[in-house]
Amino acid sequence: PPAPIPLQQQHYHSPLEQRPKPKPKGPYIHPFAKALADRSIIKHGKDEQLLTQQIRIFTDRTRQWESKLSFRLRASDFTLRPQLDARDVEPSYYASFLTDDDPYPPFFDYKMAKSIRSYAPSTPMIQDWRLSRGLLIVSSPARRTNRRISREAAVLADLYAGLDEDDAKVQDLILGEMKGGGGGIVSNNNNGEGGGVAYPSSEMQVERAMGDASDLYVPLVGVRKAVCVRILNSFLDNKNRTAFTIWCFDIESGVEWYAPARYFSDFKDLRNALMRIDKAIGDIPFPSFSWSLGFPGISSEANESESTKQARRQQLENFLRNLFASVYRGRLNPYLAEVAVHLQTFIGCDTILTNGDTANLTLDNQVAINEITYGKRTPDSKSEQDSNARMHLKRSIQRYVYRLFLLPSVEKLVGHFVDTARQKVTSEASNFGPTKRQSVQFNVNKDVATADVEKIRDFIDQLQDLIIDGCHEDFMSISQRRDFANLVDDVDNSIRDELFREAVREQVELEVYVPLRSTISKYLVYAWFNEDMEMKHKMKALENKPQSFFRIPKEHRSRSDWSSVSKILKEGVGRSTLPCVKLRAIVDAAKEITHLDAEERSVFPEATFFDGKVVTKTKTLGADDFLPIFIFCFVQAKIERPQALCALLQTMCDPAKMNGETGYYLSSFHAAMTHIHEDLDLSEVNDELAIFLESS
């Protein structure tokens, strides 16, 4: 990557300082780096500084990407040059540059500072770097201008943490070299090229040319900013070729999908195509493949050992993940967007631009799962702005956390834990029993399985708390942007803190739970195999039963058979991947029962069912009426392996949510399943159905 802006800050004396300042205590250390060092994950000192540098690089790139939809690179070495968007500056700090008698500089557009961008940012606002180092200053005057540094470069040098290089180097980094004094800024490159517009904007015109005309602006419109990819498994097709199942999750849109089946040859073709664009991609580790494979009588993919297949899956997964991460931690170059287009096509997605440069994800004939699409109600006009602000803030925080997992120290920590958990299951696989499927399931002890899954949950809990402790200040800074002004919060910021926790939990599960999903399944699915087989038969016998069979009162029977509730359970609980998303779907389904009941009672005050008319508007849905409805919807959703699923959700649920709304409705989910499994006898089902038919 390009050389980062030095961390060592230089203080500039000013007559505006009101009292003596304490001496700086060293370079600024990010709180997340301190949190890692306090837990002995990294060492104090140089490791903290290095991690702070890495976060700084990610933030600078992201801030420019989200603000300008492009990177501004110095042509000579592709170094990222700072670009100012007044909306990224903390308001009080911004105001300190506008108190002198000089006219507002063109790069400080006051109207633009109050505008709302079409894309919610995921970086903290630029704050006074002196305050973070304990320097007591009433105002923050920028470095004084002189023959070697312009007004614009002076302001930017202060905003970007007080560059400690000499004025000429600061000028060159930010605007291009300056020559001569007075007002004009001209290029001083050897090619003799003139100055170009350094800060292009569709909303304002810069009368005087500034900057270096040889700067490169790399457009990134349509490039996905945070895509998680995992190769979950592999299988042999009808030609005995190994195909790989690639699972994808786009954090910007909250959509998950499976990419088209890919073979090793597809990965190899992708690598060769990208190396023709950027030779540096050849440095990313890629698995070797024996030249003899595929020749009849010599060797075949079908004859490879499981360990060999697993190693190749992991290498190919790391290759894909490194490619997606290169825009943040790789060396910048003009071909970033072209590489990204190839990658997005490979996993079966594309981007369609709409008004306001909003980039919408589209899939190439792939089935998508998205919380927004499987039955959530559209909020009313009063709460729509608040609902949108919450959604965008959650996704912004999640993109921030996504970048944390690109840090080498965090990546190493998670990778070591995932590998250890996988090896443990592999070593214990022989204890599961014979090779026959039914026999295997019976030999897994429920307590042992739950205890092992709890260890994974404990690691996720600890990682979640670590990120929240180390990044809460940045989260608050992001939430205080104008983009989220419509968020309705309470006095103690509990709503925001809950959003922070929810966003962090989801991203941690993406990074830890997803690669271990098959590992966890080996425990839970095997341990609850008998119970789930019994549930399968009982739910099959119940799926065509009417609402009256479940003793739902006449006044609360739905004309739609609660189809919207069943859809949420089927899509959100049955098909989604993450435990936290499944738990939210259970809560959404429970709330939909109340909403749908109230809606239908108001629209149809006298509902007509096949067993007679009933006046419904005088009855409200009570707690005793809720469970029969939930059981009915549970059956209609046809969720696979509900016993193992319930054990997963009870084990993986965030402990902070178990005593609240999530815990309450999860108990209702468990009660519905228990009623079907333990309290319902198939012979009784058939008898009651016969009685019902005779009476009707």
List its traits:
696 residues, alpha+beta, five-stranded antiparallel beta sheet, 22 helices, 11 strands
Structure write-up:
The chain contains 22 helices and eleven strands. Residues 1-24, 177-211, 433-442 and 689-696 have low confidence and may be disordered. It has 696 residues and is an alpha+beta fold. The strands form four sheets. Strands 3, 4, 5, 6 and 9 form a five-stranded antiparallel β-sheet that branches. The longest helix is centred in the middle third of the chain and has 34 residues, at 446-479.
Question: Brief description of this entry?
Answer:
The chain is built from 22 helices and eleven strands. It has helices at 31-38, 46-68, 91-95, 110-113, 151-159, 167-174, 264-277, 306-329, 336-346, 381-404, 408-428, 437-442, 446-479, 494-512, 517-527, 529-542, 563-575, 579-603, 623-637, 642-652, 661-678, 682-695, and strands at residues 70-73, 216-219, 227-236, 242-250, 255-258, 262-263, 349-353, 359-363, 368-370, 606-609, 612-615. The protein is globular.
Topology:
Layout: H1 31-38, H2 46-68, E1 70-73, H3 91-95, H4 110-113, H5 151-159, H6 167-174, E2 216-219, E3 227-236, E4 242-250, E5 255-258, E6 262-263, H7 264-277, H8 306-329, H9 336-346, E7 349-353, E8 359-363, E9 368-370, H10 381-404, H11 408-428, H12 437-442, H13 446-479, H14 494-512, H15 517-527, H16 529-542, H17 563-575, H18 579-603, E10 606-609, E11 612-615, H19 623-637, H20 642-652, H21 661-678, H22 682-695
Antiparallel strand pairs: 1-2, 3-4, 4-5, 4-6, 5-9, 7-8, 10-11
Helix pairs in contact: 1-2, 1-13, 7-9, 10-13, 10-14, 13-14, 13-15, 13-20, 15-20, 17-18, 17-19, 18-21, 19-21, 20-21
